[in-house]
Write a structure and sequence with these properties.
Length: 449
């Protein structure tokens, strides 16, 4: 910058000089520029940033996945009979559904046959009941007729006995005997009717029980048939679950035959969303429920979602891919929108602390030299190395507690290392973040020296 400031007046003089003078001066400027590039090749391309004082945010960056806070599973019905489930139709995954909308159709040919058989059984049971009723009525009519006949005979015998009171004793005894016979026959007819009533009641109860059982079987068959058409229990999004197959775990699809009772669809409630992430065991002591979190979704660049830590796992688990111990952490989002979907990859910026009136610079501008922590401060013809004391740091910013003043500009790379070697082994306090993101703390504007 200073080189161009020095050359600029010379260029003004060239504009007002003659042709010969212009050629000489132009050649001089060219030589100066070439010498500057040769002598100062590195300092001409070093980016700097201004140290700033203000609130410093201590954060922790983690990677996670968006999920619904509440989700309802939909399972295949449990069988009470031998039957193989086979999926023949499915709603499109990712589609939005309302309560009662179609999700999955299981092959129901066998279930339809079971319903038809249950209907036939019910019809036969009802017909048998009516037949039993008719038989009972017919038999009872005969018994009643016989009873009436026996009662009439008894009355006749009783009347004849009264008329024989003045007849001979022998004749009288004959009529008394006839009366006793009629009396016995009448009682037998009455007892037979009572006995038959008991038998008839049992017969009817058995026939009615058969009807009720057939009705129950029909209801069960129809209920089972309806259960083979899976519908959404709530409003939400269609997300198919993975099932175990002969070729391994995979999402359910048409033609699969899942086990009875197996959950095959999840319906997440999109009204309440969360981020599920993990934190390394060395950082878990920094976390607690209620801490503020800024969530950015990879697929929705430029949008921030805000939330709070709602759960920190009590026990660590090992990551299968790295064998590192981590703790599961859940972040409930304060709000959501139609763009947010379960399964989206996200970054969680967990705010673990704040420091007021802190002087901070980017992490990439702090270096280790001979066991000392240093920065390179802009000044004069080339940056000057200065030892500093550092404090708290965030994902990409660090606090300077001594050795640097607010407003001073520091280099974002080590100027003692040739530009051609930058990108090799780093000697900074912490690596530069790979992902471009909003700064964790106050930062200045970068310029080119």
């Amino acid at each position: 910058m200073k080189l161009f400031e020095a050359v600029n007046p010379l260029l003004e003089r060239i504009r007002h000089a003659g042709k010969k003078s212009w050629l000489i001066a132009g050649l001089s400027v060219f030589i100066i520029i070439v010498l500057a590039i040769v002598v100062f090749p590195e300092s001409a391309t070093i980016a700097t940033v201004e140290s700033t004082e203000g609130e410093f945010i201590i954060d922790l960056l983690t990677r996670g996945e968006i999920d619904a806070l509440n989700s309802t599973s939909v399972s295949l019905p449990r069988m009470r009979r031998h039957m193989t489930y086979k999926i023949i139709d499915m709603a499109e995954e990712g589609s939005t559904v309302k309560k009662g909308d179609f999700l999955i159709q299981v092959d129901n040919a066998e279930a339809l046959q079971n319903v038809d058989e249950a209907k036939d059984k019910l019809a036969n049971s009802k017909a048998q009941l009516e037949s039993e009723k008719a038989t009972i009525a017919s038999n009872m009519a005969q018994l009643v007729s016989q009873l009436q006949s026996e009662r009439y005979s008894y009355q006749q015998a009783e009347l004849s006995l009264k008329m024989m009171q003045f007849e001979a004793e022998a004749k009288k005894q004959e009529y008394e005997l006839n009366k006793k016979k009629a009396d016995v026959a009448l009682k037998q007819a009455e007892e037979k009717i009572e006995s038959q009533k008991i038998i008839d009641r049992a017969t009817l109860m058995r026939a009615e029980l058969d009807v009720r059982q057939a009705e129950s079987e029909l209801r069960e068959a129809e209920k089972f048939l309806d259960a083979l058409t899976l519908t959404a229990p709530i409003d939400g999004l269609v997300v198919y679950q993975e099932i175990f197959t002969s070729s391994g775990m995979k999402k359910v699809q048409v033609g699969d035959s899942p086990w009875p009772g197996m959950p095959i669809v999840g319906i997440p409630d999109l009204a309440l969303m969360q981020s599920k992430t993990t934190v390394n065991e060395v950082d878990i002591s920094k976390l607690e429920k209620g801490q503020n979190v800024i969530v950015t979704v990879d697929a929705l660049e430029g949008k921030n979602y805000y939330g709070k830590i709602s759960r920190v796992a009590s026990l660590a688990r090992r990551e299968r891919s790295t064998n590192v111990k981590v703790f599961d952490v859940e972040v409930t989002l304060d709000s959501t929108d139609t763009q947010l979907r379960p399964g989206m990859t996200c970054e969680c910026r967990i705010i673990t602390g704040r420091i007021q009136n802190a002087l901070s610079i980017p992490l990439q501008s702090v270096f280790q030299k001979d066991g000392k922590t240093v920065v390179y401060v802009q000044g004069g013809r080339k940056p000057k190395m200065r030892e500093v004391t550092v404090g708290e740091k965030s994902s990409d910013t660090i606090v300077i507690t001594s050795g640097l003043n607010p407003g001073e500009r520091v280099c974002l790379r080590d100027p003692t290392i040739p530009l051609s070697e930058v990108g090799g082994e780093s000697n900074t306090v912490a690596p530069k973040p790979k992902k471009k993101r909003q700064s964790s703390g106050p930062s200045g504007r970068m310029i080119i020296m």
